[in-house]
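tool=predict chain=A
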Amino acid sequence: MPREAQDLLDPVGEPAGPGGAGPLIDRSTDQPGLTRRAALVTAGAAVVGVGGLAADRQLGSGSTVAESTARSGLTVLDPEAVLHLVRRATFGLTHVLLNDVRKRGPENWLDDQLHPDRIDDPIAAVIDTCYPLLAGTAAQLQAAIPVDDPLRASWQLIEAAIARQVWSRRQLAEVMIDFWSNHFNVTTPMGPTRTTKSVEDRTVIRRHALGRFEDLLVADAKSPAMLVHLG
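tool=predict ok
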């Protein structure tokens, strides 16, 4: 099995406790733990159970965007304004998402998306558990990253970003996070930023993605990840 595939199935350790002391990953036990795939499957079911993101986005559901639009009687070229909004403000059209926007109204749905803290998003907590390195400081990452896997934090960042884009209910926030991550580009995975890029993602890009551009610009200009990247 390729190392990347095996890594997806590895048990995940617990994040460091308050104070940040000690490594973020503990692989000293052989006891079976929560795997990323199992956690995300469970979370997908939980999201649907609380009326969250569509069943189309669950792992293994087999549903596609084409099937979703077919059930709704619409096509991807339909000029309806709701479809236009969903295509632009999310990472993909689903049947349940489309019905949610229509039921609540585009204005109300968009207002909540602009204030992501209002949106209950249980998948976010699951992703945090699956990718504990993303909560660490640069110093913690330096201590926690295995010598034989120096880019582990970078790969966790990439995997977590994809997971959020697929399953998070805070879709507009994820769209803007992706946009600003590309605009303020810091190459990942890359050796020099292996302990700083995930910190930039958490404390700069995600924090300011829906805020003032000036705040985002100043924060990223001072970010160690950007300074190392430009240096």
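Residues 152-167 form the longest helix (16 residues). The two ends are 38 Å apart (CA to CA).
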